[in-house]
Amino acid sequence: MSAIIIDGRAVAARKREEAGARAGALRGRGVIPCLAVILVGEDPASLSYVAGKEKALAEAGIASRDFRLPRESKEEELLAVIRTLNADETVHGILVQLPLPSHIREDAVISAVDPAKDVDGFHPVSVGNMVLGRKGFLPCTPHGVLVLLREQGIPVNGAHAVVLGRSNIVGKPLANLLSRKDVNATVTICHTGTGNPKIYTREADILIAAAGRPGLVTADMVKEGAAVIDVGVNRVEDSAARKGYRLSGDVDYGPVSEKAGWITPVPGGVGPMTIAMLLLNVIEAAENAENAKDAAAGLYG
Q: Band of the pLDDT at 247, cuts 50, 70, 90?
């Protein structure tokens, strides 16, 4: 058999159209949805990611404000920018591009963002809301994976889902979202302390690779007909490639695609969904802010 290729670009395009329509509705109310993007230093990968995000924002009718700080900037300088943006009512979302230089505490920066503008879904309040099943911003990549599964019609209710990786950005939140009652998967997390992950991956109806190790998942680790979602994006040296490298996922795509029932490619799978879900989070933040203003006006007007 050969796996059905899950076209993340097509699903993401539909979500971006939705974001554009909702942005248009906000503009009709006199509101311009806006995301502030903060980048510290000039890491090439971060620069590329930010450029892609800002292009998508413009296409969806969302304004962006770009803040570039030198790599040697002090933590307090970055926190001061965040405080200013927290207080700016014309800014609905704040995104601090990670990773940060080693002298800046990532936790302190994430916690400084107003939870109402935390469109990355990384703030402790956002994480708490997610864990408790309360309304709030969901982290973009894990949410994008759930949307891909749903849009593709992959059975999740009662399925055994195995997540390879336990990062705070993907692995942990994804395991939490999959185990929610409205999704209802049975979840196993495998990580560097898992002695023999094959024991678990071979039993997975849904296998999600988010470990950041190219080619980690081989065909002998995959159950026949399973859905394989590859979150990994790794730069692998390749002298034949124009840039001297190629992008590779965590899955050995060719052999695994001959055994799986569904599979996401890299690129073109999960990646486009991350940006699409970010756009929708920005729109939601703008809608929330406007609705709060309307409610206050009704209460005190």
A: confident
Rounded distance, CA 34 to CA 28, Å? 15
Q: Which of 207, 210, 209 is nearest to 226 (CA)?
A: 207
CA distance 251 to 213: 9
- Pair 148, 174: CB distance under 8 Å: no
* Cis amide prior to 255 (ω within 30 degrees): no
Task: Report pLDDT for 299.
Answer: 58
Model confidence pLDDT, tens digit, residues 288-297: 999 998 888 7
Model-level pTM? Answer: 0.94
Element (H, E) at 113: none
Residues labelled as active-site residues: 53, 97, 120
295 CB-near residues (< 8 Å, 6+ apart): none
Contact 253, 266 (CB under 8 A): yes
Quickly name the fold that domain 140-271 has: Rossmann fold (3.40.50)
**Given the structure tokens 């554009």, which residue do they identify?**
20
Give every CB contact of residue 201 below 8 A, 6+ residues apart in sequence.
Answer: 162, 164, 190, 207, 217, 221, 222, 223
| CATH 3.50.50.60 given to domain 32-114 | no
Confidence of residue 300 (pLDDT cuts 50, 70, 90): low
Distance of CA 282 to the CA centre of its chain: 13
